[in-house]
């Protein structure tokens, strides 16, 4: 009796594993529009990796839009196509039920250990009544539209047909690999050791400190026209002319004043006699 129970349990475990397992090559062979994409999955060795999964979504490209994917080497093709394999189950009803208009999806390439930055992720965006897919890498083009649901087996595998291939920068061999963004260039006029703020430069610049007193002295030595006018026209508070400093000896006014003084002295002497 114990042997019968063990046999029955093994039978149920076999059924359970068969129900969750799938063969992507056999599935896609039923849809002639995706025969080239199916061949590429087998050529790259990705089909074997897909069949080991239990929950997956594949974005399949039709034969007429496959483009230059057929010209890739097997290694590059494996990397590129692994970004078309999402590690979760998505069918059209589930996409429509998403609250946000955009979603970030994890692909099989993310688990390869080779992904840098967002190379291992896809962006899905609801747009114009449809859904658009593309790489999550910054500035990557996202214009591959969802066309239809090819097949689905909830909640194990879903195959969604898309309009055209999308490019993940750094994977297809034609774009430069994604690298760390370059540091911001230092200001050419700043010190090599430090770059103080512009306001500090203005406050601490020795050249400007040296120039400031000169500019003040220049202003003091060269009064404005208004100052000249007020000096030539003394006000009631200004001291009498006799108290003011005598004009320079060489001036005409000085000579006239000396002559008048001599005349007064001579007149006084004549009057005394």
Write a concise synopsis of the structure shown.
The chain is an alpha+beta fold and 273 residues long. It has helices spanning 2-20, 24-28, 35-43, 46-50, 74-82, 92-97, 198-204, 206-221, 225-232, 252-272, and strands at residues 56-60, 85-86, 102-106, 121-127, 130-135, 144-153, 157-162.
Strand content: 15-25%
Q: Give the strand line-up of the largest sheet.
A: 2-1-7-6-5-4-3
End-to-end separation in angstroms reads: 172 Å
CATH architectural arrangement of the domain at 18-172: Roll
Order of helices and strands: HHHHEHEHEEEEEHHHH
The CATH topology name of the domain at 18-172 reads FAS1 domain
Q: Helical region count?
A: 10
Would you kindly provide a written description of the structure presented here, covering whatever features stand out?
The chain is built from 10 helices and 7 strands. The protein has a domain at 18-172: FAS1 domain (Roll). Residues 15-20 and 187-258 have low confidence and may be disordered. It is 38% helix and 15% strand. By secondary structure, it is of the alpha+beta class. Strands 2-1-7-6-5-4-3 form a 7-stranded mixed β-sheet, with no helix packed on it.
């Amino acid at each position: 009796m114990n042997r019968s129970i063990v046999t029955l349990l093994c039978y149920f475990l076999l059924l359970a594993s068969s129900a969750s397992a799938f063969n992507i090559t056999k599935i896609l062979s039923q849809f002639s529009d995706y025969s080239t994409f199916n061949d590429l999955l087998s050529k790259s060795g990705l089909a074997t990796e897909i069949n080991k999964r239990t929950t997956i979504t594949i974005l399949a490209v039709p034969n007429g839009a496959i483009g230059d994917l057929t010209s890739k080497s097997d290694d590059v093709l494996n990397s590129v196509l692994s970004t078309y394999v999402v590690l979760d189950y998505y069918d059209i009803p589930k996409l429509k039920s998403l609250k946000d208009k955009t979603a970030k999806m994890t692909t099989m390439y993310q688990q390869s250990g080779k992904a840098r930055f967002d190379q291992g992720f896809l962006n899905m965006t609801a747009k114009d009544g449809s859904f658009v897919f593309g790489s999550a890498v910054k500035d990557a083009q996202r214009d591959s539209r969802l066309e239809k649901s090819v097949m689905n087996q909830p909640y194990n595998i879903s195959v969604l047909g898309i309009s055209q291939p999308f490019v993940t920068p750094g994977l297809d061999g034609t774009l430069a690999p994604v690298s760390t963004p370059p540091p911001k260039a230092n200001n050419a006029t700043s010190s090599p050791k430090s770059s103080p703020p512009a306001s500090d430069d203005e406050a601490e610049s020795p050249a400007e400190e040296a120039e400031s007193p000169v500019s003040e002295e220049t202003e003091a030595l060269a009064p404005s026209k208004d100052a000249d006018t007020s000096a030539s026209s003394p006000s009631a508070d200004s001291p009498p002319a006799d108290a003011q400093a005598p004009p320079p000896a060489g001036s005409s006014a000085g000579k006239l004043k000396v002559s008048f003084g001599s005349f007064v002295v001579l007149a006084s002497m004549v009057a005394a006699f």
